[in-house]
């Protein structure tokens, strides 16, 4: 039972990823095809989860939305990791005024959440998937920088790193050979948690019309479209909400499971 969170997280995240991959090759119906003869059709043999107010198959929209969700999560977390991890290593390795500069810059960036950055970028560049990915990625950089710096400071205090520094090993070599492999587990845990946050942020941005534009379906837009039928057909809001909940819960459980597995301080004493 010690790894129950990890297994549950892998299953839920795997379900989302498999759904996204399957949608590349097959969906029950065209996810953007309007069928006036099947408006608000109930779940049945023809439409497993029914249709929306435009007669579009709900299951097909959910499957394609998973693809957008995974894409935004991967790219935004990649942006945050590529920028935040090196900054955290430099801050922890060098120290002094440079570390203070990086950390204070992270504090300033925390004042600009993903939603605000997306609004600014949408005003300048227009609402798009790239806008959402960039805003979420940049807003997540401080989290990666902070956890990486904390782990780097721990590694820098180890005897083998002190010996490497005393022998004249260049800082870049120390960072690549000693620091990066040791901070990788912490970064992996942070990445899994950040993936869930990115999914939730993308849904919020899509709900506000600041992310992927129509006709490409997203879970956030499906929630917004379901508002009109919230009391007459509440299932239209339940399905995308459930999909978002499963994806975020899976990422959080995966992060908790990885932390329990990789952090020696949390291992059970035998």
Explain this structure.
It is a single chain. The protein is an all-alpha fold and 270 residues long. It has a single domain, classed as MetI-like (MetI-like fold, Orthogonal Bundle), CATH 1.10.3720.10. The chain is built from 9 helices and no strands. Helix 7 (171-207) packs antiparallel against helix 9. The longest helix is centred in the N-terminal third of the chain and has 37 residues, at 58-94. The protein is elongated.
Summed up, what is this model?
The chain has helices at residues 4-25, 58-94, 96-110, 114-125, 129-156, 159-166, 171-207, 219-226, 235-262. It has 270 residues and is mainly α.
- Strand elements, count: 0
* Category by helix and strand content: mainly alpha
> What is the general shape?
elongated
Q: What is the CATH superfamily?
A: MetI-like
Topology:
Blueprint: H1 4-25, H2 58-94, H3 96-110, H4 114-125, H5 129-156, H6 159-166, H7 171-207, H8 219-226, H9 235-262
Helix pairs in contact: 1-2, 1-9, 2-3, 2-5, 2-7, 3-5, 4-5, 5-7, 7-8, 7-9, 8-9
Task: List the main descriptive attributes of the protein structure presented here.
270 residues; mainly alpha; MetI-like fold; 0% strand; elongated
């Amino acid at each position: 039972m010690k790894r129950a969170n990890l297994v549950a997280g892998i299953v839920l995240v795997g379900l989302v990823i498999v759904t996204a991959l399957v949608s590349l090759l097959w969906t029950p119906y065209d996810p953007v095809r309007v069928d006036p003869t099947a408006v608000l059709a109930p779940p049945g043999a023809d439409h497993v989860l029914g249709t929306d107010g435009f007669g579009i198959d709900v299951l097909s929209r959910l499957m394609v939305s998973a693809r957008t969700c995974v894409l935004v999560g991967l790219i935004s977390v990649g942006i945050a990791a590529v920028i935040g991890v090196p900054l955290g290593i430099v801050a922890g390795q060098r120290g002094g005024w440079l570390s203070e500069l990086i950390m204070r810059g992270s504090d300033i960036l925390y004042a600009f959440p993903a939603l605000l950055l997306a609004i600014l970028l949408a005003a300048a560049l227009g609402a798009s998937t790239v806008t959402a990915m960039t805003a979420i990625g940049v807003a997540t950089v401080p989290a990666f920088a902070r956890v990486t710096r904390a782990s780097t400071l721990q590694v820098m205090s180890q005897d083998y790193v002190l010996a490497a520094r005393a022998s004249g090993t260049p800082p870049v070599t120390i960072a690549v050979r000693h620091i990066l492999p040791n901070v990788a587990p912490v970064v992996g845990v942070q990445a899994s948690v950040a993936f869930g946050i990115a999914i939730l942020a993308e849904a919020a941005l899509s709900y506000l019309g600041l992310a992927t534009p129509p006709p490409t379906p997203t879970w956030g837009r499906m929630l917004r479209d379901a508002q009109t039928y919230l009391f007459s057909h509440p299932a239209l809001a339940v399905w995308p909400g459930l999909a978002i909940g499963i994806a975020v819960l899976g990422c959080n459980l995966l992060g908790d499971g990885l932390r329990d597995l990789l952090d020696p301080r949390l291992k059970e004493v035998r």
